[in-house]
Amino acid sequence: MANIKVLLPQFGMGMQEAEIVRWIKAVGDPVEAGEPLLEIEAAKTTVEVPSPGAGTLTEILAREGDTVEVRAHIATIAA
């Protein structure tokens, strides 16, 4: 079974970090590629982050309210 790292994407050229607003999926939930996993806030804009692959969400590394850097590993999906 392969693991897929969910990384915080960069939505704008100047974006260096974002706050985790809400996890839409929880550990143990099945996810499809492209399905929304969480909401983040960057530069006063809230954006949904899509799943990079299909499988089961096995680990959440960044909690709601945390501020994380772009490309930080924030969750893991078992494919």
TrEMBL record:
PANTHER family: DIHYDROLIPOAMIDE ACETYLTRANSFERASE COMPONENT OF PYRUVATE DEHYDROGENASE COMPLEX, LIPOAMIDE ACYLTRANSFERASE COMPONENT OF BRANCHED-CHAIN ALPHA-KETO ACID DEHYDROGENASE COMPLEX, MITOCHONDRIAL. It comes from Rhizorhabdus wittichii. Signal peptide: none annotated. Forms a 24-polypeptide structural core with octahedral symmetry. The keyword Ribosomal protein does not apply. This is Biotin attachment protein. Residues 3-78 form the Lipoyl-binding domain. One of its GO terms (molecular function) is acetyltransferase activity. InterPro entries: 2-oxoA_DH_lipoyl-BS, 2-oxoacid_DH_E2_comp, Biotin_lipoyl, Single_hybrid_motif. Its cofactor is (R)-lipoate. GO terms for cellular component: cytoplasm. Keywords: Acyltransferase, Lipoyl, Transferase.
